[in-house]
Amino acid sequence: MTDDLIVHVMPKKRWLSPIRLQRPRANLIVSLILIIGFAPLSLVACAGQDETANERPAVVVQAQHITVHKTLTCGCCGDWVDYLKAEGFSVTVHNHEDLTPIRERLNIPARLASCHSAEVDGYSLEGHVPASAIRRLLTERPDAIGLSVPGMIAGSPGMEVEGISRPYRTLLFGDGEPVVFSRHNQEPVE
């Protein structure tokens, strides 16, 4: 009966237990061999996965620093900065009398302008761009200049108005025509 008791109390064997060795150095060597041997297989297995299957990107983006350029008198720009900080970004703010030279330096087309501009990791941001779009931009790293939410859309980050939440788009822009990068506030697909 004691043998039965021992069988029930003992933990289940792990899949590595048949090759468990008594010496720690040998365990390390065997572990490294297994990791190195199976690593290419895991890469091949992951290569065929559908990227749309996961809502979260596979690559974790660390907190990024965003430099914001705005005018001193714009309150919604300050609200967007607070929103970015609440989303985990570190933010530096520069106040300017005229943002035109900043937008020219950042290659932001006038037709995509809003009330503030920003820079993050080599990309330009214009307007009330949501943190989710910024994270996706930094994860996917498309060949583009940056993102824009043209105008000042009620319901976008920093432009929250109680009871009003308008659909809007974040546009990806570069050398060609801007394309829709993401939709927000349940904008219907055309």
Question: How would you describe what is shown here?
Answer:
With 190 residues, this protein is α/β, with parallel strands linked by helices. The chain folds into two domains: 2-48, no CATH class; 65-184, Glutaredoxin, CATH 3.40.30. The chain contains five helices and seven strands.
Compact description:
With 190 residues, this protein is an alpha/beta fold. It contains five helices and seven strands, in the order ααβαβαββαβββ.
Average pLDDT taken over every residue: 75
Strand order of the largest sheet: 2-1-3-4-5-6-7
Low-confidence stretches: 1-61
- How many structural units, i.e. domains? 2
Assigned CATH architecture of the largest domain: 3-Layer(aba) Sandwich
SSE pattern, N- to C-terminal? HHEHEHEEHEEE
Number of strands: 7
Spatial shape:
globular
- Tell me the β content: 15-25%
CATH topology-level fold name of the largest domain:
Glutaredoxin
Fourth-tier CATH superfamily name of the largest domain: Glutaredoxin
Indicate the CATH class of the largest domain.
Alpha Beta
Sum up the structure in keywords.
2 domains; about 190 residues; disordered N terminus; globular; Glutaredoxin; 7 strands
SSE arrangement:
Elements (H helix, E strand, L loop, with lengths): L1 H8 L14 H24 L17 E6 L4 H12 L3 E6 L4 H6 L11 E4 L2 E5 L3 H10 L5 E4 L18 E6 L5 E6 L6
Parallel strand pairs: 1-2, 4-5
Antiparallel strand pairs: 1-3, 3-4, 5-6, 6-7
